[in-house]
Design brief:
The chain is mainly alpha-helical. The chain folds into two domains: 397 residues, no CATH class; 96 residues, no CATH class. It is 69% helix and 1% strand. The chain has a two-stranded antiparallel ribbon. The longest helix is centred in the C-terminal third of the chain and has 55 residues. The radius of gyration is 27 Å and the shape is globular. The termini are far apart.
């Protein structure tokens, strides 16, 4: 049967097909614009890129690392924090109405919290500020001293004012920076302290990052208080969905403080913001009064995952076509990393020297001799290039590679001891000699080179995006599982009655309370598997290897944040710390 809306049979009087087509186009354009705006706000799509050194290090890691080690790192990363929390919760809490002097269980937790804050702060300062790395002995001394000072300060306030101390974290946060700086100076000495203090730009960026972290500590508990206030009302679901808006804002704020160190942006942002989002989301799911609310949360998560996976699928197929055999890359078996290495080897280095990407990374990586030789080749060419994009002529110097490294250290700071330095094309030792021929040639040079720059920039950006997605899915998988298991264990402890998240949970109903949480964790695990399949089939990247690569390469930073935030979140939920989520 022929439709009456057929463009031939409908007749001149019927304009439905044209108007329908116009409306369809308008809707399509609106959806496209919305998706463009949405992706522009996402960390995984803002345009971040791997450095060439990180790309080569990742490929070497995939080649040399056995799968058993990958699984051990992936599963074993949360083990230290699980052990620490178990030991801490094994110390019983006393009734806060009995006074501060008999609550030894609480003061043990305060000391642990102070030590964790000190250790995490020192690790981050060492990675973000040149010359601020503490030795193992110095780190231990600094941690113990801060733990003692933190506990003593809290004891003094409790003894002279009231116990529990209202919003103890916020009160102590106002005075602790002075003690942290003072003890740091005592530990490292005055000369090193003056040297560290001279790096004002790095310290300013680090201060901004710490400020965003403190803001997170305030915003997420405040949101939990709001959620408990609207539980059993029609505002329950909107309050939970508000978490996604908070996450989006906080990720963009935190990312803006570490953009100068692009290789660590995914780990730094996701293990801060996404951790808070995941743990407070499952808390809201636990306290939701209706199963429909939990189902709605899962539906939103599924929709977001489908959009991300679809975008990743399209990008991987498009980029892989750029490295097809007609591009000069042969026998790469659809492995993107191998294809990129082969393309770099075969490409004229003139095509790479001014690309919009970094050659060296801002953190230390283990690379093979072949990879190191390729990096040295790229750096040497950047230094000794006979013709530069701006028409400059290089000064002839001896020891080009050594000079390049020295210039890098002088102009850009190293974020990790013994690591590599992020490098932009070096122009500080070039003497500009503008000629008429160079000026005429400059425009055509940029046009010819732009396509080659994009050829390498796009896969580097794809690797950055895939790392963001892998880390996010990893956290969103393990956090619900860890949280659910923690509830099952906590309900058997006598201290459970002092935890706000345990209110209303008994041995009889705990199974039903955590069922939705485990279902959410299973859903995230399925999402992770789907992501891994797409990455493996489309471009040969193994998601588990990329995850283990990040966790192992940046293990101190990962563990510092993991331990810090778990301890802080647990503390915010203990009555003794003076935070009442139920506004009672």
């Amino acid at each position: 049967m022929v439709s009456p809306l057929h463009p031939v049979l409908a007749g001149p009087g019927l304009s439905v097909p044209r108007s329908f087509g116009r409306r369809h186009n308008v809707v399509k354009v609106c959806i496209t614009k919305f998706m463009d705006v949405w992706f522009s706000l996402q960390l995984s799509h803002y345009g971040g890129k791997y450095s060439v050194e990180r790309l080569l290090a990742f490929e070497d890691y995939m080649e040399r690392t056995p799968f058993s080690r990958v699984m051990l790192i992936t599963i074993g990363t949360p083990v230290p924090i699980v052990a620490l929390v178990f030991c801490q919760e094994s110390v019983p809490l006393q009734d806060p109405t009995d006074g501060w002097s008999v609550n030894y269980g609480f003061w043990v937790r305060v000391a642990v919290q102070g030590g964790v804050i000190a250790c995490s702060s020192a690790i981050h300062v060492g990675h973000f500020v040149e010359g601020a790395v503490l030795s193992s002995r110095q780190l231990t001394l600094f941690t113990l001293c801060i733990a003692v000072v933190y506990t003593s300060l809290a004891l003094t306030i409790a003894a002279t004012w009231k116990f529990p101390i209202p919003f103890m974290h916020m009160i102590l946060a106002m005075g602790m920076p002075f003690f942290l700086v003072g003890l740091f100076r005592s530990v490292v000495g005055s000369s090193i302290f003056r040297q560290v203090s001279s790096h004002t730009i790095q310290l300013r960026q680090l201060g901004k990052m710490f400020a965003v972290q403190i803001l997170m500590i305030a915003i997420y508990p405040a949101h939990q208080m709001l959620f408990y206030a609207v539980t059993n009302t029609s505002f329950e679901l909107p309050a939970i969905l508000m978490l996604s808006v908070v996450k989006l804002v906080m990720k963009n704020l935190l990312a803006s403080t570490v953009l100068h160190m692009e290789d660590i942006v995914p780990e730094e942002v996701i293990f801060n913001v996404d951790f808070f989002h995941a743990i407070y989301l499952v808390t809201c799911m636990q306290g939701a009064s209706s199963p429909n609310t939990v189902i709605a949360i899962m539906a939103v998560d599924v929709a977001d995952t489908i959009i991300e996976l679809r975008e990743l699928y399209q990008r991987t197929r498009s980029i892989l076509n750029r490295f097809s055999p007609e591009r000069g890359v042969k026998d790469c078996h659809y492995d993107l990393l191998v294809s990129i290495r082969s393309w770099i080897h075969q490409a004229n280095l003139k095509k790479l020297r001014n690309g919009n990407f970094q050659t060296l990374s801002c953190i230390s990586h283990r690379v093979s001799l072949d990879s190191r030789a390729l990096l040295e080749k790229l750096q040497t060419f950047s230094l000794n290039s006979a013709v530069c994009s701006d028409g400059a002529v290089p000064v002839k110097v001896a020891g080009t590679v050594t000079v390049a490294r020295a210039v890098c250290r002088a102009s850009l700071w190293r974020c990790c001891p013994g690591g590599s330095t992020p490098v932009q094309p070096i122009k500080s030792i070039l003497v500009p000699v503008k000629t008429r021929s160079s000026l005429q040639h400059q425009g055509s040079f940029h046009r010819r080179m732009q396509q080659n720059f994009n050829t390498l920039s796009e896969p580097l950006e794809l690797l950055f995006t895939s790392e963001c997605l892998v880390l996010t899915e990893y956290l969103e998988t393990i956090i619900p599982i860890m949280y659910g298991c923690g509830i099952l264990v906590m309900v058997n402890l006598p201290s459970a009655k002092y935890h706000s998240e345990m209110q209303g949970i008994t041995l009889e109903n705990v199974g039903g309370k955590v069922l939705g949480i485990f279902a959410y964790g299973l859903l995230e695990l399925i999402s992770f598997v789907a992501l891994a399949v797409i990455m493996r089939r489309n471009c040969g990247i193994r998601a588990l290897y990329q995850l283990a690569f990040v966790l192992e390469t940046q293990m101190p930073l990962v563990q510092a944040k993991f331990v810090l935030w778990v301890i802080m979140v647990l503390a915010c939920r203990v009555t003794h710390f003076g935070v009442d989520f139920h506004l009672s």
